Amino acid sequence: MKIKNIRFNEITGHVYIYENSVNHCKLIAIPDINWSLEIPSSLNEDDTNEELVIHLFTLLDESTASQIADDIVKWIFES
Fold first, then answer.
1. DSSP labels for 28-56?
2. Contact 50, 70 (CB under 8 A)
3. Are 26 and 37 in contact (CB under 8 A)?
4. What's a Pfam family this protein contains (predicted)?
5. Rg of the chain over all Cα atoms, to the nearest angstrom
6. Residue 30, phi then psi, degrees to nearest 5
7. What is the pTM of this model?
8. Could you tell me if 49 and 56 are in contact, meaning their C-beta atoms sit under 8 angstroms apart?
């Protein structure tokens, strides 16, 4: 599990990224905004980013959702 710090709209919190290799999915959670999402591990960077933006946009403005999605994708695909 990866745990990263994130800051947006004067909120500082954690992003939790868990990769379940048995079910071939990733669970991403930001408890500070009561948000989580399960996505297939097979998604590439662009598709992962798009999925995150779509789901984050339900709680946040588009700019903030895009910024957070970019950070999360970077963390997911880092070595």
1. EEEGGGTEEEEEETT--HHHHHHHHHHHH
2. no
3. no
4. YueH
5. 12
6. -125, 90
7. 0.90
8. no
Residue 64: exposed, middle, or buried by beta-carbon count in 10 A (0-12, 13-18, 19+)?
middle
* CA distance linking residue 27 with residue 8, whole number of Å: 21
Give phi and psi for 28, each to the nearest 5: -120, 130
* Whether the Cβ atoms of residue 52 and residue 70 lie closer than 8 Å to each other: no
Domain ranges of the chain: 2-77
pLDDT digits (tens, 9 = 90+) for 11-42: 789 999 999 999 999 999 999 999 999 999 99
β-sheet bridge partners, residue 6: 13
Tally Cβ neighbours within 10 Å of residue 47. 13
Task: Judge contact between 10 and 31, C-beta under 8 A.
Answer: no
